[in-house]
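Sequence of YcxB family protein (Microbacterium sufflavum).
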Amino acid sequence: MPHRSVTVDERLLRHMARDAAIYTLTRPVAIVMWLALAAALIIGVLNLTATARAGQETSAIVAFTPAVAVALGLYAVLLSVSSARRAVRAAMPVESVVWVALEDDRLQLGSDRRRSEIPYSTFQHVRVGRDAVLLKVRDAAVATAIPRVLLSDDDIARLRSRVS
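Predicted 3D structure, token representation.
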């Protein structure tokens, strides 16, 4: 397949970073974290309510548990978005021309003078966002992001069939 290309702009970077952050925040480990934070928030609120109803003095730990749970959730979101922006910007700086080509046995990906040829077996699964296609690297906590505009629906179907 001949490769298609796109010039990266600030808007594309932001949108790809958003897709990457959503991917990070919805992985199984992150979902466990969200459930733990939700449980801490619910337990904290229930403890505060029960203590207030009983007319007892509230300890500082009980009083701050809901706020700490919310703060940790916000911190996780900010950290994920910031990390995603840095990673996407490092791989595809603004004004760089990014291209992709699907070969029979590997994915070719390039940005200006850099070029990577990655066997499909490197990837564990494909996740398609609005502006980025994310390829989870096997046995690692990272993903490779490709601008969605570079891949047609047929390309994504081919990519999925080769990665799975």
